[in-house]
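Shipment paperwork, digital attachment
Item: protein structure file
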Amino acid sequence: MKTTIVIGGGPAGMIASGFAGTNTKTILIEKNEKLGKKLFITGKGRCNVTNACDVEELIANTPGNPYFLYSAFYSFDSYATIDFFEKLGVKTKVERGNRVFPISEKSSDVIKALNKFMIKNNVDIRLNTKVVDLILEDNKISKVITDRGELEADNVIIATGGLSYSVTGSDGDGLRFAKKLGHIVTKTYPSLVPLKLSESWCIDLQGLSLKNVELSLNIDNKNVYKGFGEMMFTHFGITGPLVLKASRSLVGKYDKHKITGKIDLKPALSEKELDNRILKDFEKYKNKDFRNSLDDLLPQKMIPVIIKLLKIDENKKVNSITKEERRKLCNIIKNLPINIIGDIGFNQAVITCGGVCVDEIDPSTMKSKMIDNLYFAGEVIDVDSYTGGFNLQIAFATGYVAGNNVKS
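Attachment content:
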């Protein structure tokens, strides 16, 4: 029986190992002391395993080389993922945005299920073992060199992840192996990542969460993103689901472009409707100071910042506010300006944008077009999606395809 060695014990590596184990002797090598360290923290520990949508929607939510994934997604789509985990005892539920979670809301249950699947298929799991080199002979990887010795290989699957959340072990090993073996590795960037703003007032809003707001981003005055959802201010800028998704539009653009944006704090109201709302509040608080008139309209923490940006005396009586000042208030609520100067980096990025060039991988098998017995799965490949379970679906689909296509 041929031997398959899978490098990396994340979601792609675990599912690839399990399926490879049905046809070959399979060894999974993981440098960490346990499997699925990054998977454990996904979805704030709840593990958004996939998105309950059809293949076309999976493709639409994949900005990074989507068409490469057609074959993988059709081979193992979202519903196949849900069925796979249900059969392993992980009951699931669908939440807002078609995001699929375990009913238990425990990522550990997903990891246990994958472990159960591997054990069932006789996968030899080797933890605390680091791959240090791959030996290439006659255009095949003949040996995998680890810090615990050499292993002979008939098939090798690289599923090491990218560079995001390096504390979980994603330090680019697989990218380095691929490059050494002659593969092109495209430039890598953090993606789905919190954004840094130049505004000094961010620190005054640190910890403030906003729901149902609209975020628009421009590169050199051209709109590149508009979305609706939840976000939060931090000491350095902004984060949250809305911001992480928006950040994909800015990948690689910070150095040479001016990036600006605006936050609509009341997207459900037109400017006229908002003005009427403000007029009602001003009538209600007409004898109060301006700073005490906005409690019904804005979060308490935001009021001093808005007043400062408006340059209106906070002690000015509401009945003295001019029509022009009211117009300025309406405008800043609908168009709170921000300037983006960068992102927070790989350590807080959900995913890596870039990786092993898809032109050099067979999309129907995940096999290298250059090395006869080498396969890739997951984030190490130059593919990436938005938040909402799409990136884990990439991991499961590519892992499934790679594991099922190793030579037996």
